UniProtKB/TrEMBL annotation:
UniProt name for this protein: UDP-N-acetylglucosamine--N-acetylmuramyl-(pentapeptide) pyrophosphoryl-undecaprenol N-acetylglucosamine transferase
Residue ranges of every copy of the Glycosyl transferase family 28 C-terminal domain listed in the record: 193-355
NCBIfam families tied to this protein: murG
Example of a GO biological process term: peptidoglycan biosynthetic process
Organism in which the protein naturally occurs: Maribellus comscasis
Gene3D superfamilies hit by this protein: Glycogen Phosphorylase B
């Protein structure tokens, strides 16, 4: 059955937004006339990234559940009620055949409103640990697409399908565009490249370690592409105004991750689920530094799924100082080890995740 009208909802961070965009693109490819509407959270990253990718988005005033009791709790409930009413109106006006939730605050009210109207719903959980919104929604939805085993700990087992995480399509071609990547980043072909990424928002501890290692980087003989995250960028630029080595380039956000991966010999990264899926797909030797600030330490679990198979290296967040850059440089100069890591990580890739998810969407259409 053709998909004609679909709502995709969720966001908050790149980890939810990029899978949503990959799903939208696949739906559009199969159904060129499909009307696709995104519903996100006002003020969050999706309100910028989704229109930039050419899709329409409506923002709900939802916010995260406050950690401490107080006035914020009141604001939370007021906004939730407003969002629920907006979500009902959006569903009523747009009349989707199906609603897809990718995690993040906005998908809660929207998918609830859709399922209350009898519209089929599907959620996609990127992590080895279920987010709160998806856990709450799991009882109502028709299908739950996951990327890890043993998710029946969180969700009804009869609704689960293992598909893997969608990744942007241009990453699938990333092996063939090294020349374009060298030009794009203004790099030389002679020296190897380490890519440092801190997830879609940047990682404070990784940034501090890189900052403290600039002298070592200057002498390392490798080129470094460093993504700081938007909130840390200005401070770092200022701090390195007079001391930035030539072989270090600083970016607040990398829009062409396909090119960044294609030129990188080694990747230093947080262990967000989306990034992990991408690293598997592009087969990059990686040094993972899981964020200690996420629910149930799920990034360590994401990383361990690779480390246990000797497919990546991991350094704990509180052990990176003095080690991270040194070990990444050692790794990039150890071609044999890089080759083994690259082969092993590629075996864990799920290149058909997006297609498999859209197949599931087609199955639940009325
Ligand atoms: C701090 C936090 O809450 N992190 C969570 C968030 O991570 P985060 O938003 O960092 O998500 P992921 O690591 O899953 O994905 C990041 C995405 O951003 C892209 N990217 C990143 C940097 C950049 O400069 N350019 C760019 O395009 C990556 O290629 C990737 O597609 O969602 C993930 C998926 O639910 C979770 O596993 C993470 O624990």
């Amino acid at each position: 059955m053709k998909i004609e009208r679909v709502i995709i909802s969720g966001g908050g961070t790149g980890g939810h937004i990029f899978p949503a965009l990959a799903i939208a693109n696949e739906i559009g490819k199969r159904n060129p006339d499909a009307k696709i509407l995104f519903v996100g959270a006002l003020g969050r990253m999706e309100m910028e990234k989704v229109p930039a990718a050419g899709y329409q988005i409506i923002g709900l005033p939802v916010m995260g559940f406050p950690r401490k009791p107080g006035l914020k709790m009141f604001t939370f409930f007021v906004r939730l009620i407003k969002s629920a009413s907006m979500a009902r109106k959006i569903v009523k006006d747009f009349k989707p055949q199906v609603a897809i939730g990718v995690g993040g605050y906005a998908s809660g009210p929207l998918l609830r409103a859709a399922s209350a109207k009898g519209i089929p719903t599907l959620i996609q959980e990127q992590n080895s640990y279920a987010g709160i919104t998806n856990k709450l929604l799991s009882k109502k939805v028709n299908t739950i697409c996951v990327a890890y085993d043993r998710m029946e700990r969180y969700f009804p087992s009869d609704k689960i399908t293992i598909t893997g995480n969608p990744v942007r399509e241009n990453l699938l071609q990333s092996k063939s565009n090294k020349k374009e990547a060298l030009e794009f980043f203004g790099l030389t072909e002679n020296d190897k490249v380490i890519l440092v990424v801190g997830g879609s928002l940047g990682a404070r501890s990784i940034n501090n370690t890189v900052l403290n290692s600039v002298k070592e980087i200057g002498k390392s003989g490798v080129q470094l592409i460093w993504q700081t995250g938007a909130i840390y960028y200005d401070r770092i630029q200022k701090e390195l105004e007079n001391s930035k080595p030539e072989n270090l380039q600083i970016h607040q956000f990398i829009s062409r991750m396909d090119l960044a991966y294609s030129v990188a010999g080694v990747v230093i990264s947080r262990a967000g689920a989306g990034t992990i899926s991408e690293l598997c797909l592009v087969g990059k030797p990686s040094v993972l530094v899981p964020s200690p600030n996420v629910a149930e330490d799920h990034q360590t679990k994401n990383a361990m799924a690779l480390v246990e198979k000797d497919a990546a290296l991991m350094i704990k967040d509180d052990e990176i100082e003095g080690r991270l850059i040194r070990e990444a440089v050692q790794l990039i100069n150890d071609e044999k080890k890089c080759k083994v890591l690259s082969e092993k990580i590629q075996k864990l890739a799920k290149p058909d995740a997006t297609k498999d998810i859209v197949d599931e969407v087609e199955k639940i259409l009325h």
